[in-house]
Amino acid sequence: MWSDIAASTPSLWTSISCKSIADSAILENWLQRARGLPLHISLSGDLRPDVVIAMKRHAHRLKFLKLEFQHLEEMASPFVSLTKLTVIHTTITPTHRRCMDILRSAPTLVECEFISLNWLTPSEAGETKPPIPFTHSCLRRLRLSREGPYNKSKNAAYMVEYLTLPALETLYISDLDIMTTKFAAFLSRSSPPLRSLHLSGLGDHDLRESLRLVPSVTDLSLKFTNPEVDPFPILTEDSVLAPDRALLPNLRDLCILIAFHLDIDYDGVIKALATVPRATPHARLKTFGLRLLSKNPKPQPDMISAFRQLMKDSGMRIYVGTNTGNYI
């Protein structure tokens, strides 16, 4: 009885993991029970050819797809209904061309994650020409990163050199290892309504031009991984924490992660935060986080008191500390 009810309920058959499906007959039976509803598919490991063929027959029904970079070539197909895509590096190092190809095949894609420790540049992949530039009009969320505690993803950021994303609202890049002029060029030609921006792998990058191009940003996270670089002179000089806030007038939430191993000028940080305009609630910075990635000493008691007073006076939520606790 219960098995009959389950078999006749299409919504129970829309999510499939092809690691657990051994042959196409089982897959076809499963897909038939879904009765044309949008599909959520997860692919992993080596896929049997008959399973690949069966999957491609139903590619037009895919709404969410998670797969490995090794599957990109064999699964090449139009994904006309796909809205969310996750591609993970396991055995095959990805190339930007392969990723561009799947983006082209998914015109309705809204959210995309490419997760890899390393990417092959066109020359490393033996390609004589770079990927053809491409505009994706629907993509709103893009993540270029890797799994793991260090979140480095070598060469991933090069993808934005070939992309134009006019609908982009959220961008996460775990290793900004391209020239900031090229990153600014991407933002300039995309002119996106960007609201959330997360950049890692930063050193002494000059982000002023890039940030000037996205005044709509309300949530900003910057991770400075070079232990020799103190980011605060960069951020306070005509940048994110400049007194006039000309770059990001709508910024509400700011998180800075730093690996700087020398003493931090906490007094300078407090003065910069205290000069942030609060003329209207709309313009107010609501949260500030400073997360220490190195063995930096905690602020002195007088600095902690000053941070707490600033919180009281401004209404700003402030976090200064490590992953294990807030000093404030």
Automatic annotation (TrEMBL):
This is F-box domain-containing protein. It comes from Mycena sanguinolenta.
